[in-house]
Specification:
Blueprint (H helix, E strand, L loop, with lengths): L4 H10 L6 E3 L2 E3 L6 E5 L6 E6 L3 H16 L8 H17 L1 H12 L3 H22 L6 E2 L6 E9 L2 E5 L5 H14 L3 E5 L6 H12 L7 E3 L4 H10 L5 E5 L2 H13 L4 E5 L5 E4 L6 H13 L11 E5 L3 H11 L21 H16 L3 E4 L3 E2 L7 E2 L2 E4 L6 H4 L6 E7 L2 H9 L3 E2 L1 E5 L3 H10 L4 E4 L14 E2 L16 E9 L2
Parallel strand pairs: 7-8, 7-10, 8-9, 10-11, 12-13, 12-20, 13-18, 17-18, 20-21
Antiparallel strand pairs: 1-2, 3-4, 5-6, 6-23, 14-17, 15-16, 19-22
Length: 497
């Protein structure tokens, strides 16, 4: 954790990056031989060349996964056997902690301290948790008449296509891989073209742990090429997708155009953070929202970007949040003291700066931040930014920005706060802050979100489901409920003579 930045830079220089796909247990170039540049957002430097997978590569990966599923090399193993392999996989992830953390930081710009302390251990814990769970799930016998025996069994679906985003590459991959592999499926993973490095390394570690060849394939490439080919493939049984609502709609369209495969979308968010004047520690609420909003450079679907504060405490609240901002000033992601790193690429930088300009144009004013910084490094850094004077109709309050930009909106009554918080096309997470237990329960029940936090934010565990209402998606990642996405229920009816 305390490795100096210059040592991380030296390690990055020594890295030997292999950008080829992993198909049928082998590293392979794209069928076309084409590659694309892997550019680090820390300094704009090209750090590797990645196989540009397309339809032919997806076809090869799906065929490999189908063979592996049909011959039972993984699906027919006893749950306890699959558990042992996945536990070894989790152990290998932890053993490769420094390497994976460095890849994650170089690839998408997050601080090395969080790649080490959050991303790697969270991914490993996810794989291990599903490994431990799979031999503890029982099937059912239905309460039929005594003349019949009706068995209800849970079976793997077959070939799962997993498409994951660039903001938490390892964690999002693990959320799909854990339950899908534990249940006995084969998986074809398409990582974001903006952050493919750890996915490719995970596939190698899985093979080292004993996962049979072909069970887990990784095809890097662009969404409109490899991603679309995977979602349209007639031999893929389900898609687990995490990403934007715009692409989530396309995933549903692709399913309709192909084999009606199941599509489980975990999409965007515009999470509400509601602070009532009766909460007895406004400072803690303000510091919590700053930490949650600016974590991971604001590139989190559950970031509390809409902050509703009662008008009687709003001035104090904004002052405290603005005072916290200097602690999140972007720094060198390879420095262990850095709290906020770089946005993932130049496109995202321009998107975030565009929203900041839109906020100004619509009449909101900036309480703190609002500027690009560290431009001389060649990287993509934006200050933590807080808008005041926002109304719920502004673009910055309605659209997902995916950057360190917070909107503070004042309210007068509890009813108004609930109405404003629910006035969104999204419903991923929310938070209510009140020292009145009746109000806390009442408002939590009224908020339309997949997770509602009370007097805290972002406390989390693999044992609880993650997903949203409305256009934040369907299905749930994490917890035992995730098995529902990657298994089929079969009824076997036996007539007893």
């Amino acid at each position: 954790m305390n490795t100096p930045a210059h040592d991380w830079r030296a390690r990055s220089t020594d890295l030997k990056l292999d950008g080829r796909a992993v198909i049928a247990g082998q590293r392979v170039a794209a069928v076309t031989g084409e590659t694309f540049n892997c550019v680090s957002p820390i300094d704009g430097r090209t750090i590797g060349h990645i196989a540009r997978g397309g339809e032919a590569d997806i076809n090869a990966a799906v065929a490999s996964s189908r063979r592996a599923f049909d011959d039972g090399r993984w699906a027919h193993q006893a749950p306890a056997s699959r558990k042992r392999t996945l536990v070894r996989f989790a152990e290998k992830i932890l053993a490769a902690r420094d390497e994976l953390a460095l890849l994650e930081t170089l690839d998408m710009g997050k601080p090395i301290k969080y790649s080490l302390s959050v991303d790697v251990p969270s991914a490993a814990r996810c794989i291990a948790w599903y490994a431990e769970a799979v031999d503890k799930i029982y099937d059912e016998i239905a309460p039929t008449a005594h003349t019949a025996l009706a068995l209800i069994t849970r079976e793997p679906m077959g070939v799962i296509g997993a498409v994951v985003p660039w903001n938490y590459p390892m964690i999002m991959a693990a959320w799909k891989l854990g339950p899908a592999l534990a249940a006995g499926n084969s998986v074809v993973l398409k990582p974001s073209e903006k952050s493919p490095l750890t996915a490719l390394r995970l596939a190698e570690l899985a093979l080292e742990a004993g996962l049979p060849e072909g069970v887990f394939n990784v095809v890097p490439g662009f969404g409109h090429e490899a991603g679309e080919a995977l979602a349209l493939h007639m031999d893929v049984d389900a898609i687990g997708f995490t990403g934007s609502t715009r692409v989530g709609r396309k995933m549903l369209e692709y399913a309709g155009r192909s084999n009606l495969k199941r599509v489980y979308n975990e999409l965007g968010g515009k999470s509400a953070f509601v602070v009532f004047p009766d909460f007895d520690d406004i400072e803690r609420a303000a510091k919590t929202v700053a930490g949650s909003m600016f974590f991971n450079q604001g590139e989190s679907c559950n970031a509390p970007s809409r902050v509703f504060v009662h008008e009687s405490v709003a001035d104090e609240f904004v002052k405290i949040v603005a005072g916290e901002a200097p602690g999140y000033q972007p720094g060198d992601p390879l420095n262990a003291a850095t709290e906020m790193g770089a946005l993932v690429d130049d496109t995202q930088l321009r998107t975030v700066l565009g929203y900041i300009e839109a906020g100004r144009a619509e009449g909101a004013h900036i309480a703190v931040g609002g500027q690009q910084v560290r431009a001389e490094t060649g990287g993509y850094f934006v200050e933590p930014t807080v808008f005041e004077g926002v109304n719920n109709g502004m673009r910055i309050a309605r659209e997902e920005i995916f950057g360190p930009v917070m909107s503070v909106i004042r309210f007068k009554t509890e009813e108004e706060a609930i109405a404003l918080a629910n006035d969104s096309s999204y419903g991923l997470q929310a938070s209510v802050w009140s020292s009145n237990i009746n109000r806390a329960h009442r408002v939590a029940r009224a908020l339309r979100a997949g997770t509602v936090h009370v007097n805290q934010y972002d406390e989390d565990d693999i044992t609880v489901p993650f997903g949203g209402f409305k256009q934040s998606g369907n299905g749930r990642d994490k917890s035992l409920h995730a098995f529902d996405k990657y298994t089929e229920l079969k009824t076997t009816w036996i007539r007893l003579e």
